[in-house]
Recover the amino acids of this structure.
């Protein structure tokens, strides 16, 4: 690798070239790149400009240092040496630009200056804004770093405040991993943008502190000079630890830095828009409905005032297969979780979810001045689905209605909604579809409820920012959206952007505090622990992190490190069924069974949470080699307080004859159903015989001691002819 960039006073120009049969491959050692004059002090070569960002990407506690090298001949005075600036979009960098990021890990909590060098990454800009990335992994003594040709992981010792030592895993990215985040839709270069560099930085070589945008502007780095007086009013994100900034700003800054490269319009993982430059209402965060296949249907991204039932909290506060971000995360950012919790708790909203108008069908034939009305794109030409990304004065919207004056769209509300929200404005893409339209669009927006005018906008043009309109539509049956021309009608492409209807909030979840015992692990309990089930499977590390049941739930391996009464015995399955027809399954999920009988969620601590809504339900409990049980009657459950259901003490009537087996005055599920047939019969005895001496997580291991042995065959014989009476 050779840097394409020189010191500001002149010198040689070095160019980065993409690897290939006729290209120089990157050198195997960091010292050979020319990026640093001294690896001991990490003194950068002349021409490397240091910078920082307001809201850093979370990198598992690592401390980072950043530099940029722009191609130049001593001055930044041609487009090939300058950056195309945008106040709310990704910047464009000249081919040959190099970004360098150096990572060090604090390895002694007692002394913050003690660091271990991890890696030094390079991102190189090619023609057409394409990029590639490489990384150098530092050796153990921090004297040199070697080029990685694939991803890697290494554990590092970290001394904690009490002097004890833990190990932290670090993930080194492959070149393919780099492109997962540094994608074209996100602009390829992620951190270097207006709101991230609009802040002060003390330059090491001069000890001068200045706003970074102002410094770059003074160096003539931008193709168009900025007005210094306007810089303070430009977008500015903040650090998650900045307690002087509003919670919402801290949270949105963090989401932009950590999530927006995937979570934005036109990317498969979009769902919500995490970009700091997007208006809050168009981000689909608060009350936004999750669309991930890995999460329950209709989970809200953020549930107002309820962190525990917000999808973003569940994913960000996790290290399992569902964790976000999904790459290179081995440590949870506790500072972020604290801020996110505080922010969500401050959000008050009388509405829980919404529906985009573009996902509804108008009740009357639409009227449009040019071609058809378009949905989730701007109005295009005369055909359908020929519009562009909806954009109003530089701000893009993933959802909405694109129209052209004169336009009329009518929706039926049926008194089902409380609030209507939208952004209105003339679409920017008029300039792309018709060059003669520049600055000529002029429209007036009108909103009618039950055929009565409720709102009318001023005359709006392409020069205007989007206006937000919020209306109370409670008790209304009809919503009519009108756009009228105000002069030259050919260019009146206008948007109802992020137009949505909100329904009243309904609390749709409750917690179930369930207690269950299994006969198998409660037979022959450990000495002195006669009231606890055995946890042999956990001790032998046989319990899988993925549930054996159909919801594909998973947990963190660390959950199985807990000992004592809260140690995990095994996975278990819980269903809620209709009290009037128990064959109707309403909701089900996996849980983890603790030694004291408590059934907890996949975090190993919390009770099971169901989202079906308050009501009366029968509870069914299954285990992979025990007979299932179901309550005789429905149990009322609501969100006012957790509902306790104890199946061990006889306080809850169970369906069927002799549905449990009592041991030590505790009612247990019958063991021995090795083939999951809901009966203990000859098939189960054959199963335990055929799998005799098999070690591991097996259904034939009915007493859950980690091996299929004579004890399991005794269980299937002693409990023969027992069966559950579960309606199917």
């Amino acid at each position: 690798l050779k840097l394409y960039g020189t010191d500001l006073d002149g010198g040689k120009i070095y160019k980065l070239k993409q690897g290939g049969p006729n290209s120089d491959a990157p050198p195997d050692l960091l010292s050979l790149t020319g990026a640093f004059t001294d690896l001991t002090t990490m003194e950068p070569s002349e021409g490397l400009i240091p910078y920082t960002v307001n809201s850093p990407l979370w990198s598992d506690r690592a401390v980072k240092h950043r530099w940029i090298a722009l191609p130049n001949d001593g001055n930044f005075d041609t487009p090939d040496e300058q950056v195309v600036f945008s106040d709310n979009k990704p910047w464009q960098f000249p081919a040959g630009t190099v970004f360098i990021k150096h990572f060090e890990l604090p390895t002694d909590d007692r002394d913050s200056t003690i660091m271990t060098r991890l890696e030094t990454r390079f991102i190189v800009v090619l023609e057409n804004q394409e990029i590639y990335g490489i990384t150098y992994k530092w050796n153990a003594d921090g004297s040199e770093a070697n080029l990685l040709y694939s991803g890697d992981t290494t554990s590092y010792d970290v001394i904690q405040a009490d002097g004890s030592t833990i190990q932290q895993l670090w993930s080194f990215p492959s070149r393919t991993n780099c492109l997962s985040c540094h994608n074209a839709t996100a602009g390829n270069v992620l951190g270097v943008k207006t709101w991230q560099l609009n802040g002060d930085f003390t330059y090491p070589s001069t000890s001068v502190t200045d706003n970074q945008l102002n410094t770059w502007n003074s160096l003539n780095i931008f193709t168009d000079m900025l007005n210094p007086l306007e810089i303070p009013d430009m977008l500015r994100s903040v650090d998650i630890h900045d307690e002087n900034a509003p919670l919402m700003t801290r949270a949105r800054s963090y989401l932009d830095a950590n999530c927006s490269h995937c979570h934005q319009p036109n990317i498969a993982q979009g769902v919500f828009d995490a970009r700091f430059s997007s208006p809050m209402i168009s981000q689909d965060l608060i009350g936004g409905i999750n669309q991930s296949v890995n999460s329950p249907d209709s989970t809200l991204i953020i549930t107002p005032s309820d962190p525990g039932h917000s999808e973003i909290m569940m994913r960000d506060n996790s290290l399992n297969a569902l964790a976000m971000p999904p790459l290179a995360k081995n440590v949870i950012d506790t500072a972020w979780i604290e801020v996110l919790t505080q922010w969500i708790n401050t959000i008050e909203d009388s509405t829980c979810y919404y529906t985009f108008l573009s996902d509804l069908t108008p009740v009357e034939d639409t009227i449009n001045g040019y071609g058809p009305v378009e949905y989730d794109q701007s109005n295009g030409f005369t055909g359908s689905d020929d519009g562009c990304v909806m954009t109003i004065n530089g701000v893009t919207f993933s959802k909405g209605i694109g129209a052209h004056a004169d336009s009329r769209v009518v929706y039926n509300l049926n008194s089902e909604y409380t609030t209507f929200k939208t952004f209105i404005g003339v679409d920017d893409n008029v300039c792309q579809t018709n060059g003669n339209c520049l600055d000529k669009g002029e429209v007036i927006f009108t909103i009618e409820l039950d055929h009565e005018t409720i709102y009318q906008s001023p005359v709006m043009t392409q020069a205007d920012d989007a206006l937000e309109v919020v209306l109370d539509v409670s008790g209304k049956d009809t919503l009519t959206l009108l756009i009228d021309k105000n002069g030259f009608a050919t260019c009146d492409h206008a948007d109802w952007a992020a137009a949505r209807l909100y329904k009243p909030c309904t609390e749709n979840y409750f917690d179930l505090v369930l207690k269950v015992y299994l006969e198998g692990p409660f037979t022959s309990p450990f000495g002195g622990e006669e009231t606890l089930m055995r946890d042999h499977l956990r001790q032998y590390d046989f319990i899988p992190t993925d549930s054996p049941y159909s919801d594909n739930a998973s947990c963190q391996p660390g959950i199985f490190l807990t000992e004592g009464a809260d140690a995990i015995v095994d996975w278990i399955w819980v269903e809620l069924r209709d009290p009037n027809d128990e064959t109707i399954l309403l909701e089900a999920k996996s849980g983890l069974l603790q030694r004291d009988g408590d059934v907890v969620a996949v975090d190993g601590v919390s009770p099971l949470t169901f989202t079906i809504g308050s009501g009366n339900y029968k509870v069914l409990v299954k285990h992979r080699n025990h007979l299932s049980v179901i309550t005789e009657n429905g149990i009322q459950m609501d969100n006012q307080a957790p509902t306790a259901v104890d199946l061990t003490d006889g306080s809850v009537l169970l369906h069927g004859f002799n549905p449990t087996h009592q041991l030590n005055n505790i009612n247990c599920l019958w063991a021995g159903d090795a083939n999951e047939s809901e009966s203990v019969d000859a098939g189960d005895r054959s199963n335990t015989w055929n799998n005799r001496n098999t070690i591991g997580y097996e259904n034939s291991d009915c007493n859950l001691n980690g091996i299929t042995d004579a004890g399991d065959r005794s269980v299937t014989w002693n409990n023969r002819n027992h069966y559950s009476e579960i309606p199917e």
Observations:
- The chain has a mean pLDDT of 88.
